[in-house]
Amino acid sequence: FTGGAHGYDRRTLLTIDRNSGKILTWRDLIRPESASQFVEIGEEEFRQMRNLDPVLSLNEQGFEFSGNRFKLPENCVFTEDGFLFRFDAYDVGSYAMGES
User: What does the pLDDT read at residue 2?
Assistant: First the structure.
């Protein structure tokens, strides 16, 4: 989805190492051996937030993930409560699906 009829709102979330100034991704904060499990948990949360069928693929439910595999967005921040991930409109679905 590339938009067109609707405005485009993007919000960028960042976690910055206060010592180095480096922008950190979730991969910098998760052990490499835990990454696939972390993504699985992210998909479960995404499906619950959207009330999606756990059996049907995300693509069958109107979302567009390349290779029909859930991927965590790069747009995230680490907070006191944990990670906050954000899919903006058009990232993985139509404008009507909104942000996640």
Answer: 58
